[in-house]
Write a structure and sequence with these properties.
homodimer; 176 residues; mainly alpha; Arc Repressor Mutant, subunit A; 3-stranded antiparallel sheet; 51% helix; disordered C terminus; DNA-binding
Chain lengths: 176, 176
DNA sequence: AAATTATGTCAGCCATATTGACATAATTAG
DNA sequence: CTAATTATGTCAATATGGCTGACATAATTT
């Protein structure tokens, strides 16, 4: 083996054939359209995608602190500030002083906030459901495992909801 | 039927239980980290994600026109202009007059452009490969079908590479 | 008492997106 | 042939959502 006519695969570590352009592009296209769903709704409220992300996670993890939210969104405090302030001023989110540590501000959605969060999730959920059906997905758990495995290992704890037993946390009980 | 104590499911079309928050969040987290991979590389070139997307699609669809690129990226001409101009000026992309329609500018990567495009794809491809393995994906085709089904039906043609039979990615494309 | 932490805020900067208007050249339609 | 349309490029202005650095306050920890 290793005939002189063959490219030296040990040194040329990557050529096009080795790269999974198919899934790279499918992820791009899928996410492009997935995120486009809520935009029309958001525009009617004068909000953008940043508001959506904040509202989503506050709704899903009620009581999370500002620091936790920053870690989930992977943005800085200053980037969050403007968006969060608007959501609070307009009555979608409330802050309450942390019970254990009074420096912390726990974030909760108001009823108005929950309603909007759900309204934004509806088209995304519908798209997912239609895609699962259309693709004839039988092993949904495999899809969840794949997506979770795409997340940086040290950040996978963020994927799981805190303090909720009834939630689907795709089979493996142990945290990794 | 329709007892006064039960919520009216026919009118309240969506409550939390109906919504696929699990996959909504998994898509968010997976894509968040997936896109973070090339950032370090791009920063060394003074480029951002916009440059990455342009270079990626020019590399993958050599000869595509400006209008086609705009449709794929779903941005406006003005948004593309600055980024494309930089990539051209810095020698990553070349424009050639369209053969059929001389108004069109066909876009091609230079060798330098192809090299960078591949370098950016490497960590993304590695992440995908590791996730497929870690998740023990056996039915890769199902995953591809799902992601493609997530794309707006009228835009699915964009997903398929033009003028290429199946998976063959031979070297067409003009040299600089 | 001092250090650290959680949060908030100010000021400014950058990247990427938008809309609208207009210019040019090439193609197509009448 | 002329007129309309098309593909592209460009200008100006604006919005959004990121960033860094600096500083302030209150609460907790050492």
């Amino acid at each position: 083996m290793n005939s002189p006519m063959k490219p030296d695969r040990q040194h040329v570590a990557h050529d096009e054939a080795d790269l999974d352009f198919t899934l790279i592009e499918l992820l791009f296209f899928a996410y492009r359209d997935f995120t486009s769903d809520p935009d029309a709704i958001l525009a009617r409220y004068g909000f953008g995608r940043a508001h959506h992300r904040v509202l989503h996670f506050v709704n899903r993890r009620p009581g999370l602190t500002v620091a936790e939210l920053l870690a989930v969104l992977r943005i800085t405090k200053q980037s969050l500030a403007r968006v969060l302030k608007q959501l609070i001023n307009m009555g979608y989110i409330v802050q309450v002083q942390g019970p254990r540590d009074r420096r912390q501000r726990e974030l909760y959605p108001t009823k108005k906030g929950r309603t909007l969060a759900l309204a934004l999730a509806v088209p995304q959920s519908r798209r997912i459901r239609a895609a699962l059906e259309e693709a004839g997905i039988e092993d949904r758990a495999a899809l969840e495992r794949f997506l979770k495995a795409m997340v940086n290992p040290e950040l996978r704890a963020q994927v799981d909801l805190p303090g909720r037993s009834a939630e689907r946390t795709s089979e493996r009980g142990k945290t990794e």
